[in-house]
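User: Sequence for Ornithine aminotransferase below. Tokens please.
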Amino acid sequence: MKTDGQLQHDVMDELEWDPSVDHADIGVAVNDGVVTLSGYVSNYLEKMAAEKAARRVSGVKAIAEEIHVRFKSEPKTADHEIAKRILDMFSWNVSIPHDKINVKVEKGWVTLSGVVDAYYQSDEARRAAARISGVTGVSSLIEVKKLPVSADIRDRIAAAFKRQADLDAAGVTIATDGNTVRLGGRVKAWHERGVAERAAWAAPGVTKVEDNIVVSTF
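Assistant: Structure tokens for Ornithine aminotransferase:
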């Protein structure tokens, strides 16, 4: 008598062998000899062909058929398709270390995990995943590696300010405590404060930024 694992393997092989079935988007689960088919096909005839292929396999007691017909013009929003598009997006973005991030998709909800060197990499991955059609939400469990905080953080912030027109970093104070950066002082506009905060987050090893910069127009 076949185990559920053996039966699942045989049904998947039969679906792959049948030329009238595109098995790529069909999932197979087996419990006590009952086979559940799920996923998507492009037409009703293919749906029926998949069911017949499963019934041909010896040991199948019953079939729960949950395959949906989805036309080619409809958006590809199955979980595995969403995951594939997210991975592609990650591989195209030089700010995302795609080889260090794991992607899980369940009913449109994306969970990201892994370890990266800087916060901006985690933030960029979260933003990229959220832009994919079909995504209903994103949970980021990505950890930032606790590297020694660079001693040149103040220089990085000052350099970021210098790249902007009419900005002055002289009024910003910077203090570090382990992997935490504390920003203080005064700037003349909100966007100056944002430049300082983003520069601090971009420093390798920073896991927390406390922004206490005051915006003053006087």
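The chain has three domains: 4-69, 79-144, 153-215.
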